[in-house]
Backbone:
């Protein structure tokens, strides 16, 4: 009897001990997750535990978020000792809203890709980590590959002149005027050389059923509401335009807002003509992205402005209607009295930044980033893991097309040159399409140039959100184009713009520009 | 087989204990079962009811909530349909009014932003086949509107119906679709249908209320079905598959709790129908999950009752095989009739046992008696020395006197003094009672210190066997006390003879003999005495006998009728006996002979024996008195007789004979002497003397011869001649016949005797 009591007591005691031990483990775990990023000394304590770096990146393609046992995650961890944990916006939610939300909740990742101007908020509020000293030490490849010019621009983004983000570097133009070459062939015309020829072509597109379906459903050219994504029409007149937002370039000998220039007025006049003649889709200013894209995909649009590197998805749908679809880049037609060019912003746009809250894990975040910028890893970064991201066909690596079910392999390198773009084209397009896309880039590159305002921080707009949002410009431009208002009211706009703070902003921009020289 | 079992069962049931235990166990079993089943059913019903209320409430709340959402959405749709921009959009032929659509965009955006559960809103113009919506925007062509397939809903409206709620798939971005509920509302302008407003509701928000709160058991689910039996929403659950769902959907009834049996599972279902949408809301809970506890109760109860039954069976078997084994054996002993046994075995057994006990009482009484008699018999046998067989003796001794020890035993003979007188005094039927009284008195006095057994052996004699038990006591004193008690109580005396102590059964006979001898000593010692053998034992067995001449002389006096002289002679003889003090047995023998002779000639044999026998229990004095009385009788009788003629004539003949003994006389001479015929003389003589003339003459001649032989020394032949015999041989023959010896021997014997004297 006595013996069994003893046993019982022993049993209870041992259970208690185990329970306490479990509790200890639990609290340890909680500590980790609570302050994962502010525990650098934790590395030494738990050397066998992988270092986790949370990476926020929106606008990912198809696929699922990889788990920690994902081969790509594992491979990166083998190379760096860092396990990346990819965080993205939940399906259906707006990325800009979401990132504002996580900022408000102080639930920031270790490293993030800012969107919607969030970088300026972080910098101005002191929430961004200065990387000047860390970059050369922990991310030497990043530091060395990105040209000094770009770093210079990055430094101008803050008052204290420090590097708060790693910039995107795009050495070639991303956007290009696009043209349905097959339509051109169908109506037997050549590439337009001048704005007049361009207009003739559009008329032919409108009237001669280039898509051959027997219905006059063609929209010779189209854009989106607020005049977005019809930059080619402005570019012909030398307007610095970025997805419908007027940019800053040298006008009248100094850097100026393109929206108030004569070039702008001339382009609006031209566009107004096109609109009145039905050459510009009359629903343009009602088009939201989906409908606009659907119009292009459904083979209704002949000339438009978009990202040639992303054409693949469009091509697939277009070919359902017209198998012979052929797209080509359009050299900007010459407008009389204007030097047209395609606006190119090559550097200065923020790509990666580290929140101050993640300072303790910053080294690891930079190490991870450096892994991607190391040319030695370019092959892995390009192709990923065999049988997961790519397969070997005839001795050549080929990327496996992503599906909804395949895990996404994190990419952090945004350093585009002619070579990397060619590589990307080769990897994401069918063989027969590759040359077409490369040609588009060639044409675009020929016409494009870096604007003077490339890399100008949005801080110049501080205190003038209406001007920053280009609402005033959009209102006048839209109403003039659709014929509600007379063209003359453009001058009214210029006046109002200047009164609303345009002069002050122009002053700031010119100061900034002076700084960069 | 069945028959055997039935028989066994009946027999087992006939056993009272088994029946008792069986009834008890069965009733306990039944009680447990009833209690258990009642509590199970009650708790199940209560649980079901209790559970039904929240289930129904939850369902009602959810339904109301969803209906509320839908009604709100409908309000939004109504508001929109009255919106001027919308009516302009629907009625204006030239729709592409930037101002109008921009305003619509703004309105829609405000509505969507302000209404959390609205995902998107579309307005479809039936006239223009164009659509405006958010977030997609305006499209004059349906093909450019991503999500325009629903427009066929226009045909689905039944006449007056204004609102339709449908589930469909709504694109989420360009690539994905998701299940969604859309509210469609007709827009009527001037009585004409101009368009449809579609409000896509956020699926998760709409049905958020259906999702059970955390921790609720996962064996439940809720789902919604629309009018065309499409499943709109199912809460996540672990336990129900789609087949169950289909089954429930086809079986559920509205408004009340239902039990639906499906694949071994009882599902408790609840159904409500929304009056607004016509959707059916169903909640399903597996009864098992609710009643898991109640089932435990049920199982415990069942196992308890089974256990009770089992224990009962064990007890029955135990009682039957172990506890009741003695009773079974008793039954076997009684070899009871099986058929009889079935009726109340124990009652039967009780009757049997009571019978047995009363039988036993009777039997023991009989045995007591028989034992007493057997002991008496045994003792009598020993007394009579009939038991020659040693073994038989030992056996019987062991049987009757097993309790007696090896210590020496004493035999005491009790004899009634003057038995014949005693016998006359008490009538025959009282004699045994008196003897019993004697034995009682003796036992009473002696049993304090002795083991006693008292046996009636002969008419006058009882034997007591004693074995000393404890205490130092004098037997004689106790016997004297006993004798005095007897005298006081019964009024007569008894004499006891006491033997020497002797061990073992073998000693009994010698002891009896000793006691008898001691008892015989009464002759001298008188009545009411305690006589020990050791006091009377004689060293010499040689006894002095009375001279026969004394007797003859006595007889002669009697014959002649001389009373005086006869009594004197008797006194003389008794005095001699007293003086000799020889062995009483010899004395009794002598006295018996004497008594016999004293009897009258005419007395029959019986009288003689009786007279003689009585002497044995009498003391000498009393015998003398008896004899004197007898002699007196005789002499007086003789005196009477001799006076008669006949007697005188016969006396004359005897005188003649005596005078002519030496002559050769015969009967004729004797008859002649008195002058009567031979025959008459013979008759008379016979009557007077009870002898024939011739034998009397011969007797006289022999008496004379004997006298001569003793008193003279004459030759036998001379004596023969003197007493009338011609030849010596015939004399010798006659003498021997008369005196049982030859004359020579007679002379020799008597002479020897005379020399001694």
Residues:
């Amino acid at each position: 009897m006595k013996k069994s009591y003893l046993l019982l007591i022993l049993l209870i005691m041992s259970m208690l001990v185990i329970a306490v031990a479990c509790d200890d483990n639990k609290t340890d775990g909680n500590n980790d997750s609570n302050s994962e990023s502010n525990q650098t000394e934790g590395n030494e304590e738990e050397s066998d535990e992988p270092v986790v770096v949370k990476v926020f990146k929106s606008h990912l393609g198809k696929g699922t978020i990889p788990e920690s046992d994902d081969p790509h995650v594992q491979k990166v961890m083998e190379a760096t000792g860092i396990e990346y944990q990819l965080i993205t916006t939940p399906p259906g939610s707006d990325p800009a809203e979401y990132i504002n939300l996580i900022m408000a909740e102080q639930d920031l990742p270790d490293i993030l890709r800012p969107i919607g101007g969030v970088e300026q908020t972080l910098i101005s509020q002191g929430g961004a980590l200065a990387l000047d000293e860390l970059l050369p030490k922990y991310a030497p490849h990043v530091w060395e590959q990105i040209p000094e010019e770009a770093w210079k621009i990055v430094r101008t983004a803050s008052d204290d002149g420090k590097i708060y983000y790693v910039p995107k570097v795009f050495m070639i133009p991303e956007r290009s005027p696009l043209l349905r070459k097959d339509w051109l062939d169908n109506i037997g015309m050549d590439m337009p050389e001048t704005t007049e020829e361009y207009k003739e072509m559009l008329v032919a597109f409108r009237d001669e059923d280039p898509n051959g379906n027997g219905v006059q459903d063609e929209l010779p050219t189209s854009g989106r509401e607020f005049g977005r994504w019809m930059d080619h029409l402005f570019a012909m007149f030398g307007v610095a335009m970025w997805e419908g937002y007027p940019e800053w370039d040298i006008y009248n000998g100094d850097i100026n807002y393109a929206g108030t220039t004569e070039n702008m007025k001339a382009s609006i006049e031209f566009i107004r003509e096109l609109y009145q003649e039905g050459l510009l889709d009359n629903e343009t200013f009602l088009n939201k992205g989906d409908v606009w894209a659907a119009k292009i995909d459904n083979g209704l649009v002949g000339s438009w402005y978009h990202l040639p590197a992303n054409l693949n998805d469009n091509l697939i749908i277009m070919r359902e209607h017209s198998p012979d679809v052929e797209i080509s880049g359009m050299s900007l037609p010459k407008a009389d009295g204007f030097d047209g060019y395609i606006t190119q912003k090559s550097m200065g746009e923020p790509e990666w930044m580290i929140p101050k809250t993640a300072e303790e894990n910053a080294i690891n975040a930079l190490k991870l980033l450096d892994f991607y910028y190391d040319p030695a890893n370019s092959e892995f970064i390009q192709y990923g893991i065999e049988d997961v991201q790519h397969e070997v066909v005839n001795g050549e690596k080929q990327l496996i097309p992503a599906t909804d079910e395949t895990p996404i392999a994190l990419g952090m390198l945004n350093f585009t040159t002619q070579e990397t773009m060619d590589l990307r084209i080769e990897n994401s397009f069918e063989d027969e399409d590759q040359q077409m896309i490369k040609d588009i880039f060639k044409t675009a590159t020929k016409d494009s140039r870096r604007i003077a305002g490339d890399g100008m921080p949005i801080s110049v707009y501080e205190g003038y959100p209406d001007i920053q949002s280009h609402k005033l410009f959009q209102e006048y431009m839209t109403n003039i184009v659709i014929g509600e208002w007379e063209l003359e009211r453009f001058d009214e706009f210029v006046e109002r713009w200047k009164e609303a703070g345009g002069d002050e902003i122009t002053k700031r921009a010119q100061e900034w520009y002076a700084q960069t020289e | 087989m069945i028959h055997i079992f039935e028989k066994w069962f009946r027999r087992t049931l006939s056993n009272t204990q088994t029946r008792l235990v069986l009834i008890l166990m069965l009733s306990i079993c039944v009680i447990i079962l009833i209690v258990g089943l009642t509590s199970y059913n009650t708790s199940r019903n209560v649980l079901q009811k209790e559970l039904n209320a929240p289930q129904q409430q939850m369902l009602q709340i959810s339904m109301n909530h969803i209906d509320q959402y839908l009604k709100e959405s409908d309000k939004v749709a109504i508001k929109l349909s009255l919106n001027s921009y919308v009516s302009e959009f629907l009625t204006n032929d030239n729709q592409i009014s930037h101002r109008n659509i921009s305003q619509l965009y703004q309105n829609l955006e405000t509505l969507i932003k302000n209404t959390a559960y609205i995902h998107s809103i579309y307005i479809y113009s039936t006239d223009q086949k164009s659509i405006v919506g958010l977030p997609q925007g305006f499209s004059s062509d349906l093909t450019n509107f991503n999500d325009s397939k629903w427009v066929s809903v226009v045909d689905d409206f039944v006449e007056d119906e204004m609102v339709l709620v449908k589930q469909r798939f709504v694109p989420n971005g360009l690539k994905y679709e998701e299940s969604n509920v859309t509210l469609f509302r007709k827009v009527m302008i001037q009585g004409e249908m101009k368009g449809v407003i579609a409000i896509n509701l956020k699926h998760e928000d709409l049905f958020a209320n259906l999702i059970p709160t955390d921790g609720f058991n996962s064996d439940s689910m809720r789902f919604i079905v629309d009018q065309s039996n499409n499943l709109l929403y199912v809460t996540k659950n672990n336990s129900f598959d789609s087949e169950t769902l289909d089954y429930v959907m086809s079986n559920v009834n509205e408004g009340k709790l239902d039990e639906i049996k499906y694949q071994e599972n009882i599902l408790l279902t609840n159904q409500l129908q929304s009056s607004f949408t016509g959707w059916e809301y169903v909640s399903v809970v597996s009864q098992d999950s609710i009643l898991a506890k109640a089932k435990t109760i049920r199982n415990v109860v069942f196992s308890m009752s089974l256990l009770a039954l089992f224990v009962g069976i064990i007890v029955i078997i135990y009682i039957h095989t172990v506890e009741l084994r003695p009773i079974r054996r008793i039954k076997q002993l009684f070899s009871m009739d099986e058929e009889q046994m079935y009726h109340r075995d124990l009652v039967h057994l009780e009757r049997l046992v009571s019978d047995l006990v009363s039988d036993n009482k009777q039997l023991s009484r009989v045995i007591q008696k028989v034992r007493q008699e057997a002991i008496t018999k045994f003792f009598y046998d020993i007394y009579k020395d009939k038991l020659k067989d040693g073994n038989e003796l030992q056996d019987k001794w062991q049987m009757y006197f097993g309790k007696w020890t090896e210590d020496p035993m004493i035999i005491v003979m009790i004899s009634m003094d003057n038995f014949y007188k005693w016998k006359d005094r008490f009538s025959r039927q009282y004699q045994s009672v008196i003897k019993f009284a004697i034995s009682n008195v003796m036992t009473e006095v002696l049993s304090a210190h002795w083991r006693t057994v008292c046996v009636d052996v002969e008419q006058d004699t009882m034997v007591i066997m004693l074995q000393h038990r404890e205490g130092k006591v004098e037997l004689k004193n106790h016997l004297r006390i006993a004798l005095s008690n007897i005298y006081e109580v019964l009024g007569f005396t008894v004499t006891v003879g006491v033997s020497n102590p002797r061990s073992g059964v073998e000693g009994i006979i010698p002891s009896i003999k000793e006691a008898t001898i001691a008892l015989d000593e009464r002759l001298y010692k008188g009545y009411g005495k305690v006589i020990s053998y050791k006091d009377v034992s004689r060293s010499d067995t040689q006894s002095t006998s009375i001279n026969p001449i004394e007797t003859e002389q006595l007889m002669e006096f009697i014959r002649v009728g001389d009373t005086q002289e006869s009594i004197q002679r008797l006194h003389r003889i008794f005095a001699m006996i007293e003086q000799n003090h020889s062995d009483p047995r010899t004395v009794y023998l002598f006295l018996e002979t004497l008594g016999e002779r004293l009897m009258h000639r005419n007395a029959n044999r019986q009288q003689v024996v009786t007279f003689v026998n009585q002497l044995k229990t009498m003391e000498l004095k009393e015998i003398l008195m008896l004899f004197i009385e007898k002699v007196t009788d005789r002499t007086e009788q003789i005196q009477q007789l001799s006076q008669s003629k006949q007697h005188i004539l016969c006396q004359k003949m005897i005188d003649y004979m005596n005078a002519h003994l030496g002559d050769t006389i015969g009967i004729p001479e004797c008859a002649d002497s008195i002058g009567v015929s031979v025959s008459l003389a013979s008759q008379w003589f016979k009557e007077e003397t009870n002898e024939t003339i011739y034998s009397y003459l011969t007797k006289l001649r022999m008496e004379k011869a004997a006298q001569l032989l003793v008193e003279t020394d004459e030759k036998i032949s001379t004596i023969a001649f003197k007493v009338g015999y011609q030849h010596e041989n015939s004399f010798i023959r006659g003498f021997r016949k008369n005196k049982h010896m030859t004359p020579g021997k007679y002379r020799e014997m008597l002479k020897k005797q005379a020399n001694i004297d």
